[in-house]
Design a protein that fits this description.
Layout: H1 7-13, H2 38-144, H3 156-214, H4 218-225, H5 240-346, H6 358-426, H7 446-451
Length: 463
């Protein structure tokens, strides 16, 4: 407004286009005429009004833009606040989910650790219990080596004792190995639990801080940022996926160790059941073998005693026969002497009278018959004496055999008593896996166990 001059205004300003201010005087003291024209004055005022209106327009426009910016920033701040709160809530929920899984895994580890320790305690108890049949078998084998040489045979009882020794020793070695493995698994479970405990503590601290950040108000925020409390923080370098994977890896490792512990616990339970089956079956086999051996020994001893009675009766009869032969032999001495005396008497007959007549021949035949009869009786008496010596030797040998069988029977009786006493302990509390708190299911049969015990215990008892 008023920015363009007209020709009239130019003429009023003069040829040089300048004007002087009104009321001014020249150097001579005279008052000069006003130099500002009416148009310029109006124009100046109009310019001020125009500038003011333009400034008002710019201010209104800037005010509108500022209002729009305020609305935009308010909406952005609200959206950012909602996004931040939602992100914090998601992080809290995610942390709580991982925390719950970690706590559940810790509870499962503690339960598995207690169960594993219970099974290990039962296994240690059974290792101690297996020492009794092993010691009994070793003592029985050592005692049976003291049997007489003729009775020291590899019989059913001997095989059963060696089977009991090898089977129980194998079970004890297996249980010892399992207990060592259980201790190693318990150590791994402890390490997993410690790592999860540290992760749970970190998660609890993180959740607490996130909850505090979520519930933080303006006044609290001003207090947190006032003074030296606020410091420049470093930007987190860990990625959320890495943060989650750390906990996931801990849970996976703990689950894997717990599964291995469960398999080891089940295998140890099976070994305990197998140990019970082996101990019971081998002890029963030893008792049965000793009974069979004792019955056979008693039967043979009875047969030997009967044979001894028969031999004794035969010796008595033979002794009577020998006495009868001796009496017959003695009875021939008198007729033989008479016959010889008769022949001797006839030798002093005068010459011509001493002839080989029928009487001489009869007397000579009588002497020969008597001498032959005496020789036969002597031979028979010698044979009967030889038979008597043989019968006496047989009787002495049978007496020695009976004494040896009685000694072997006494040793087997002691072994049988010890194994029967051992069998009675199985019926006491804790003598079986079931009474010790171990389930009997899942074990194998005694025959199946015997097939897995190796060469010394794989041979069945051949009764």
């Amino acid at each position: 407004v008023g920015c363009v001059r007209t020709n009239k205004e130019n003429r009023m300003l003069g040829a040089n286009g300048s004007s002087e201010s009104p009321g001014k005087t020249d150097g001579m003291g005279s008052v000069s005429s006003p130099t500002t024209s009416q148009l310029e004055w109006e124009r100046s005022t109009g310019k001020l009004v125009g500038d003011a209106m333009y400034a008002h327009h710019l201010s209104a426009k800037q005010r509108t833009r500022a209002y729009d910016t305020q609305n935009y920033t308010d909406q952005g701040a609200y959206a950012t606040l909602r996004s931040s709160c939602a992100a914090l809530e998601r992080k809290i929920n995610e942390s709580q989910g991982l925390l719950k899984r970690a706590l559940d895994e810790i509870s499962a580890i503690q339960h598995e650790d207690r169960t594993l320790e219970d099974v290990a305690s039962v296994a240690r108890n059974w290792i101690v219990r297996l020492q009794d049949p092993i010691a009994a078998a070793e003592q029985a084998l050592a005692a049976r080596t003291g049997r007489p040489e003729s009775q020291n045979t590899r019989d059913h009882a001997e095989r059963a004792l060696r089977e009991s020794l090898s089977g129980c020793a194998h079970c004890m070695r297996s249980l010892t190995t399992s207990v060592a493995a259980i201790e190693e698994e318990a150590r791994k479970l402890s390490l997993c639990r410690e790592a999860l405990d540290r992760d749970v503590e970190a998660k609890n601290a993180s959740i607490r801080l996130d909850v505090e950040a979520l519930d933080l108000h303006e006044a609290q925020a001003a207090g947190e940022l006032s003074g030296d409390k606020y410091k420049e923080r470093s930007r987190p370098q860990a990625h959320p996926i890495q943060w989650r994977m750390n906990t996931e890896n801990l849970l996976h490792d703990a689950s894997r160790v717990r599964a291995a512990s469960k398999r080891l616990r089940e295998r140890t339970t099976t070994l305990i059941n197998e140990s019970h089956a082996v101990r019971e079956s081998t002890t029963t086999g030893v008792i049965r073998g000793l009974k069979v051996k004792m019955e056979e020994t008693e039967k043979l001893s009875k047969e030997v005693l009967e044979a001894m009675s028969s031999v004794q009766a035969e010796m008595e009869t033979l002794s009577e026969a020998i006495g009868s032969v001796m009496r017959s032999e003695e009875g021939l001495e008198s007729p033989l002497s008479v016959a010889r005396a008769r022949l001797s008497k006839r030798t002093v007959k005068p010459d011509g009278e001493y002839v080989l007549d029928a009487a001489e021949i009869s007397l000579e035949r009588e002497v020969q018959d008597l001498e032959r009869s005496r020789r036969k009786l002597t031979e028979e008496r010698g044979k009967q004496g030889s038979d008597m010596d043989k019968l006496e030797a047989q009787r002495l040998q049978m007496e020695r055999d009976v004494r040896e069988k009685e000694a072997a029977l006494a040793i087997d009786t002691g072994c049988l008593a010890s194994f029967k006493a051992l069998e009675e302990t199985y019926r006491q509390p804790g003598g079986t896996p079931e009474s010790a708190g171990v389930p009997l299911g899942g074990g194998t049969s005694p025959s199946g166990v015997r097939d897995r015990l190796g060469t010394g215990a794989s041979r069945p008892l051949a009764f």
